[in-house]
Amino acid sequence: MGSKYPRSMRGCLPLWTLILEAALIVIFFFFANYDSSSKDPKKIGVTHGAILQDVMVMAALGLGFLTSSLWRYGWSSVAFNLFMLALGVQWAVLLDGFLDHPPSWKVVIKLSRIQQATMTATSVLISVGAILGKANLAQLVLMVLMEVTAFSATRMISRQFLVADNHLSMMYIHVFAAYFGLTVAWCLSRPLPKEAEEKEQRTTSPSLFAMLGTLFLWMFWPSFNSALLTIPHERKKGVFNTYYALAVSAVTAISLSALTHPQGKMSMTHIHNAVLAGGVAVGASCHLIPSPWLAMVLGLVAGLISIGGAKCLPVCFNRVLGIHDTCGVHYTFGLPGLLGGIVYIGLRMHKISWSKDPMFGFQVLFDTGVLSLSMAMGLASGLITGLILNLKIWKAPHVAKYFDDQAFWEFPHLAVGF
């Protein structure tokens, strides 16, 4: 008796990925060199090396385990996350190098560039939460290339035409990634049969692993938010404010989860999502917030929004818009990210009005444009990517095989044929 799971990966995935990796190696051979400057290498190496390690832990362990709570999709959640991160970093290093120095077409590889590339690749790891379990690895490879390209282009436009600094253009990654993923999910959405809905359920052990991912993200989020701040006192304020916002959102998430349950019980799914909302919301403005109470209020509001979204939005999205958001990307990253963008614009307006800058109106317009551009580019590039991923050539898994590791992995302990 043959396998009831489709061999969708055997034909296209190995050849497609090996050719892509070979092409990347060739590009690195001709266009990439290590940084040979000797400008205080010890101090710079220690700083960027530590931040790179923190960001890598967030991306590989944090986001990898955060999405591992599905009953029968734990292997794919963690391993596909690592695959996309490894591919995305390579592609982002090249893109950032080419976009920063277009005349020379030479990529100078520094620790800071790998750090930024890792943060850029994180956009894909956030977006994939919306379509987790509904796409094969070949589709995810294309999604990595499309999204990293779109996000790098968005950052370049923000910096060159909207006068956004490096930190701000990166901190809107949550807004971009959330709406990119939601748009792709809308393109790929299919009515879920009963057996697929059962496999989407969370169980105790996988939820514990997902909580482990939440803890890694919670601990290292201050490093992510302050990674691109170059002025020491701004970096210190960024770390402090992120901790305050995360602490309050954690308390808010646990309390409000119990409050919204008829029997006063807490939902582990709510904890996975809303505990991190404060870190997302405070990202853009972490260096501008002058007092800890403001960061704490922002963490409180972000937690409320995240829990409220988790309670109300899934029904609306599924029934009205036809969007199935597997891991709640919208209320974990999207809504808190929008809140953070609005707060940043408000703080900038307050700061500029006190300084009586004659360019007040233009600066507010630019700040609003950066947030709007991130959301618009996420929606537009997500729509294009989703339409391409919907083509039959990718041999997407059948809807009955959604959220199932057995479609992709060998299980030696099971009977022959699986």
Give me a quick take on this structure:
With 418 residues, this protein is mostly helical. Helices cover 71% and strands 1% of the residues. The protein has a two-stranded parallel ribbon.
Structure explained in plain terms:
This protein has 418 residues and is an all-alpha fold. It contains 15 helices and 2 strands. It has a two-stranded parallel ribbon with strand order 1-2. Helix 2 (41-66) runs antiparallel to helix 3. It is globular and about 65 Å long. The mean pLDDT is 86.
Which terms summarize this structure?
418 residues, mainly alpha, two-stranded parallel sheet
Q: How many strand units?
A: 2
Number of helical runs? 15
Termini Cα gap = 10 Å
* Biggest sheet layout: 2 strands, parallel
Radius of gyration: 21 Å
If you average the pLDDT, what whole number results?
Answer: 86
**Global shape:** globular
Percent helix: over 70%
Compressed to H and E, one letter per element, the order equals HEHHEHHHHHHHHHHHH
Strand neighbour order, sheet with most strands: 1-2
Structural class: mainly alpha
List the uncertain runs: none
Strand content: under 5%
Give me the secondary-structure topology.
Blueprint: H1 8-31, E1 32-34, H2 41-66, H3 74-100, E2 107-109, H4 111-127, H5 137-161, H6 166-171, H7 173-188, H8 194-199, H9 204-226, H10 232-259, H11 268-274, H12 277-282, H13 292-321, H14 329-355, H15 360-389
